[in-house]
Amino acid sequence: MMEDRVLAVDQDRPGDFVLNMLHFARQLKERGLPVTLGRTLDALRGLKLIRLEDKQEVHSLLSAHYVTQPEELSVFDAVFEEFWCLKDPHNVSDSRGHVQLSGTFPLTIVTGDGKEKDHLRQDLETPPYSPQEVLHKKDFADILEGESEDVCRVIMALAQNLGLRLGRRWRTKGKGKRVDLRGSVRSSLRHGGELLVLRRKRRRPKKTRFVVLCDVSSSMDCYSRFLLQFMYGFQRHVPRVETFVFSTRLSRITPLLRMRKIAAAYELISEKVSDWSGGTRIGSSLAEYNRRFGPRYSGPNTVIVLLSDGWDQGEMALLEREIRKLNSRANRLMWLNPLLGMPDYQPIDRGMRTALPHVEDFLECHNLEQLEAFGQKLEKVCSL
After folding, report:
1. For residues 352 and 337, what is the distance between their CA atoms, to the nearest angstrom?
2. Is 255 exposed, middle or buried (0-12, 13-18, 19+ CB in 10 A)?
3. What is the rounded CA–CA span in Å between residue 313 and residue 298?
4. Which of 95, 222, 230, 347 has the highest Cβ tally under 10 A?
5. CB-based contact 338:362 (threshold 8 Å)
6. DSSP secondary structure code for residue 243 in this structure
7. Which residues form the domain of 174?
8. Residue 133 maps to a domain
9. pLDDT tens per residue, range 309-327
């Protein structure tokens, strides 16, 4: 049983606590646990809903996010005790044995061997945000060369986390291995509250098919690299994905994104897509998709994601006809436009104005924060 030592948390200094959480997650990753950015963000959101002074609650919440196998629990417990738990004479317990915080947050972490780790010491004037937070809000068009590697790494983590969340849904099934507590209690109401039968559930079959159509014309140059990185990660971690790029014509790149190394995938894509950074003919590209691939990938379980700024040099009548046909063959059509996040942007160009009435979701995708928001929206769409 865990000792009732104080948890090193000061709710008046959230900046320090978030910083310590990042170091804690890093230590877990170094010890081999499956730590991702998405799990850390989810854990931070969950900590807002519990009592931070209750060590057991914090331990339970963090272990739920970072421990996926029984053998990982002992590693997690060791890192948790080493990193967070201190003996502090200024902290006292109430009559029920609950630990009370003294209100002083340690700027160093004390480990079990009594040595201080001063790598967490922060200047009191440090602003309550980190470079990572700034990077999450930074427009892809403004990303510097030295920042692009970090951005691509975060994009891959977002895609992996999205894949895990999309595969986490459950449905009631008589032969499932996990007990459906909610369904069992609801069923017991028919018998006066007597729990006669335990219902069971299993993972919901992954039936949703995703079709991603990405604009790689010259007007999308500053966004295409990062969106392609997202498409690569999305296809690797989400089942049943078909990926296409288009400029003046359509190219299917699904097999290329299955390659182990994304650099090799980039090289082959650049060889196959001859009109990269060319003009934009959205209508004719959609017509090619509808003619060649639409019948194969259409159906009530298909979600189509179109990434484009909407600039089209082709015929508007063709665009309207083809996007209407595209929408009619899918469960949902989602349009991600990087210009939507620009100040004072209005979808008044003729391509976007023509397509918008046939789109269910019109979303931003100009930075990491918006890609994460898209993942949350997609998760809700797939749960309907």
Report:
1. 9
2. exposed
3. 27
4. 230
5. no
6. E
7. 170-203
8. no
9. 998 988 999 999 999 999 9
